[in-house]
Amino acid sequence: MAKNSKRIVWPVYMDAHKTRKEGRILAKKDSLGAPVIDEIMRAAKELGLNPSCEDEKMYPRSWWEHKGRVLIDLDDSKRDAMRQIAHRIKSMRAQHDS
C-alpha cells in the first residue's frame, strides 16, 4: 500500500445495529449505535487521520440512505483504525452524556 493512501470509512462499518451481511466490519463489542459522519470526522481528526467528508455518497448495499462516507489517510490496518475511531466516538458520547 502506498504511503498516505486514502481509505474509505462508511458509517455502516461500525454500526452495531447492522449485521455483517449488511456491511458491519467491526465486532459487536467494538461497534456503536448509529454512528454519523460528523462523529467519525471529529474522531478521525482527533486521531490525526486527516479526514475528509463526502456526505453526498451512498453505501452501495443501502443506496437509498444518504449517510455519506469519510476518507482517511492510512498506512496501517483499516480495521484497527476503525476500532480506534469507534472507541473515540464512545468516549465523546460518554463525555457528552455526563
What does this structure look like?
There is one protein chain. This protein is α+β, with helices and mostly antiparallel strands. It has two helices and three strands; from the N terminus they run E-H-E-E-H. A three-stranded antiparallel beta sheet has the order 1-3-2, covered by helices on one side. The radius of gyration is 13 Å and the shape is globular. The N and C termini lie far apart (about 40 Å). The model has no long low-confidence stretch (mean pLDDT about 90).
Overall geometry: globular
User: What oligomeric assembly is this protein in?
Assistant: single chain
- Helicity range of the residues? 25-40%
- N-to-C series of helices and strands: EHEEH
Low-confidence stretches: none
Q: What is the overall pLDDT average?
A: 91
Strand runs, count? 3
Identify the CATH homologous superfamily.
Answer: Signal recognition particle, SRP19-like subunit
CATH top level label:
Alpha Beta
Task: Give me the CATH fold name.
Answer: Phenylalanyl-tRNA Synthetase, Chain B, domain 1
Query: What structural class do the secondary elements suggest?
Result: alpha+beta
Query: Helical stretch count?
Result: 2
Q: Numbering strands along the chain, what is their spatial order in the largest sheet?
A: 1-3-2
Number of domains: 1
Largest sheet: 3 strands, antiparallel
CATH architecture: 2-Layer Sandwich
- What amount of the residues lies in strands? 5-15%
CA(first)-CA(last) distance: 41 Å
Q: What's the alpha carbon Rg, rounded to whole Å?
A: 13 Å
